[in-house]
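Duplicate of earlier report; DNA polymerase input re-posted below.
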Amino acid sequence: MEDDIEERRPKRQKRDSSYKAKAFEKFKQLKNGLRSKYEVEEIENVYETVDEKEYTKQVLARQDDDWIVDDDGNGYVEDGRDIFDDDLDKESIAVASTSKGKGVKRKKKVAENAGRGNLQFMISNMPTKKKEEEKLENDEALAELLQEIDSTPTTTPLRPKAIPSNFSPLSVKQAEKKYMNSLTSSVKRPTINLTKPVAKTPVAKKDVAPVVEKEEDRSVLEDLDEFEAEAITLAEETQETAQTESVVQTSEVIPETQLSEMQDIDGDCFTDDLDVSQLDEAEAKAEKESDPWENIEIEMMKEWAATSEFNEIENSVDLSNSDLPLTDSGGKKVFRFFWWDAFEDVAKQPGVVFLFGKTYHDKTKSYLSCCLAVRNIERRLFFLPRTTEKNSDKPVTAQDVYTEINESVMKNLHVKNFKSRPITKKYAFDTSIPAESDYVEVRYSAKDPPISKTAEGRTFSRVFGTESSYLEIFLLDRKIKGPCWLDVASPVPVTNPVSWCKLEINCNKVADVVIATDVKGRPPLVVTSINMRRAVNPKTSSNEIVMLSCVTNTCYSVDKQAPAQAFQKHFCVFTSPDHQVFPLDLHAAMKNYQATTLQKMHSEKALLNYFINQFSKLDSDLIVGHDLQGYQINVLAEKLVHHQITNFSKLGRVKRSILIKQKLERELFVGRLVCDVKISAKELIKCRSYDLDTLCQSVLKLKDGQRIDLEPEDVLKMFQTSSDILKLVTLTMQDTAFVLKIMYGLNIIPLALQITNIAGNVMSKTLMGGRSERNEFLLLHAFSEKGYIVPDKSYGKRDNLEKKSTASRKKPTYSGGLVLDPKVGFYDKLILLMDFNSLYPSIIQEYNICFTTMPPNLSEDNMVLPDKTLPPGILPTEIRVLVESRREVKKLMNNPDISSDLRMQYHIRQMALKLTANSMYGCLGFSNSRFFAKNLAALITHKGREILTNTKEVVQRMNYEVIYGDTDSLMINTNITDFEQVFQIGSKIKQEINKLYRQVELDIDGVFKYLLLLKKKKYAAVTLSKSKSGELKQEIEYKGLDIVRRDWSRLAAEAGKFILTQILSDQSSDDRVTNILTHLRKLREDLEAGAVPLSLLLVTKQLTKHPSLYADATSQPHVQVALRYNKESGGHFRAGDTVPYLICEDGTDKSATQRAYHIEELKNSQNLKIDVKYYLAQQIHPVVSRICEPIEELDVFQIAECLGVDTSNLKKARAVEDSGENITRPEIKFRNVDKFIFKCYSCKSENSVEGPFFNNLPVLERIR
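Output:
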């Protein structure tokens, strides 16, 4: 080694000639005492100060330098970085990579000025010595070690020890897909051609290890490898880790932490005998496979980069209220603005209604937020005079009523000023009150005390209007129906504003507000979508807000299609969870994050303050979110009160200073419209669940992996590294944008606006899903315009109903729609489905059913129809207007020359008209409704049952078989397979029925190719429909089956879907049975082996009220889980939420309903394991056996045997249900009986009889 060093040592250089002179001069000074014997030299800096680029350059140079002598890159490994270095940025690595070719063997660096005679130059150009290949059998020690390893049984292959990933979001879906692929590998795919294969499951090859598609083959998080996503997380997500062996064998990838340390030294590992071409091919293949996280990041950056130039949130310009923008209207100067929302604070400001909207400002050339305070709204009461004075025969006049009001009623209330007048009014909601009578109308200030609704006097018997709100009085008086342009005469500028709007004015007279009829179009809205990330404090189990995000569209038009650019401004603010510090390199990482404006705060309180200040600058008109009303607003309100945030009112538009949690939860965003997409989606679409993940898939058509769901536990873990924090920011901002796009996709705002304009209520209430209030206001306007006194709203009725038993609440107090007994079976001939168009609204019109036409002796025992000579009532008239308006709008919509924006407006309006008309019956039968009328609702359903029965009889007289009917629809067995001929049959039936009625109309709803009819309201079918090109399309439809209910596990549902796919397919009965039984055996094996992902075993059930309010929580597993999870894990399960749980074996002998646990509880416990017997016997077996019940070749015993379920408790024959028998079809009952075959006497040919009918004619008639 020493010889090598000497050979490598460079030639000695001659020292400087002045060296000795300097030394002698130093000795001379010391001798003469002119210099101290010890000299403290100036300390030089240990570190050299350079800029960032120079530093990066030097680091990369050190990494490339082979500084170990005679090592050839094969021994000591060091990457040349300082211990405090962060990972280098992508730009530096990219620059460095340009100087190094892929797969090129590294050479020793030589000084640029080294000559050819230099020893270093000579050595660097010497040919490298090929290293001798070591053989395993030559190393006895290594062989012994390997032998020991081989003798030890292992469940998983050996690989570098990985640092477990804190979060692998795609692991659950990867596990589900891989398992479902392997589950169907042994079953032959049935031939069923579906345009939307709902029950279709991918089939994997039998002996090939499951391989996930490209986008699912890697983990979502950057640099997280397949080993982490599959080997580690799948082991956690399945019942036993032993099942991960087959998955782990897919590839060898270095985990993230080791990869970051080794990515710069791969060049040192190249040897002369390495096949570089193979490496290049592997790298090229890896580059083709896209990382889902990179896809998310790339897609997000493409969309969000376009908004960077608009993303500066500027302070708005302050305007003077004295400079009001006025408009000429009929020669008068008026203040014109478009109102969107209204608010009243009866406790603090009675008689004042605040209208919030937009007005156009000429100076700024833009629409500004505005608040109009309509003041001096008076109470409006109607006193019904008695015929004679109480306890006297003296007739009562209007003057007598006025005298008692003045001297008695108002004097007792200390009301000094009031106005009164006699007026004639109608009343139609109580038979004890005259249909038309003289009343005394009284108006007085809202500041004075109210009159009791039960008040009566010597001269009057009833008082109406005591419970009416001032907002209702204002809207009915000015005939304002929903958001519109308003003209305000004599506007008064406000010097001391009470709102945060840009402009604020007062209107002191209600009559000064009129609807502007000469203006069209609506101002654009500023729409802000907000999203929250919370973490659960492990010590206190309390929620912490760690991140808040906003995306804003500054110019959203409700009259146009969804904008191409979803938003223009966005920001995100975050803080660290309690008792957790930020990573040291976070600040540097944030500088390189370009997706959005980021702000880091030191505490939750600072986060809230920053968010409120930034949010207020946006001046949003509409707030959008997911689960806002049910959860996020409550958490925000709680935190605002906890931290005593003084500027909390900037979230809304009314200035306030007192923090009251209960009030904040209701009025946090007062003055701004609030759209909760979860609430709106429940009315507009049908989903298994309405969580954000499901809505993204249903509405936005996102594929697996395009969105990642995070639990609070995952959020807490993602604050450990800077890269994970930025990934959390990206996911949070992505969800915020998804919520906004769901609102666009469902057309929630345009539809809500149309419904509000039709009903005449407040749009904020429409967005909260209040159907009852919409119908209520529609009827309020209708009856008020006709001179009727409307019934008072009864507050507190809901509370009284809550005290009643659950059974009494759920059972209807009158008979509902008719459901015919189904003829259970599997039908392979075409089934015709027919239904009545809007049956109940049509019945109301057909028989003129209304409050104003109701016979006085009407009761459930005496269903008397209104007199035919009566004029049309209010209710049928309103419905007729809605139906005719929709018909006209649909005609306009079919015009090919209109623009796409106009067509969209027509489509939304016809939807709004349909939804409103169909919900009119609901307000009559809803006990909490202001217009509840039990007798009218009972009469309508009575006529509905009668119409359905008559229709069934007509169809049977036409020699067609009715196999099922429900409320307003019929299923008819045509016994043919020709699609066109089925429609001809439907047209004949339609003509026969429709000529019996004027308003009731029967129509063809669809055709079923296959139908599996199980029982009432439960069936599965393959629907047939013809496209514009004439091609027949097929689609599977499920109705009421266990597989679409949430209280069954996904595994049971998927098993049911698979079996339905087998039944509803073109294959022989033997193949169906074989495939079904094979599938069931495989399910049993996988459950017992623990190979089923936990996510497929989750059972979900919805909470109908807060879990703490359940009296029988011990018998309801979802309630137990919700209570325990809320208490121990900081959960937030509440009324309306769906609770996921697993049934586990916990070592006790409790019943299955008492052994329910949250999935996190199972993961964190050593004593819990999945109860396999429960899932086989109580989940899969009931679902499968019910579906297979009509299949003659299968019975419950065969199914139980395949699943390993005890058959001793199974009954061979099932009792007939009390509600009506399920008739077994003769085709099923006598399937194995020989057909009747006879010879014709004349031609001697054989004839077979398939059934009693042929082409819907008796066989005997055909033979004759």
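The mean pLDDT is 78.

Merging into the original ticket.
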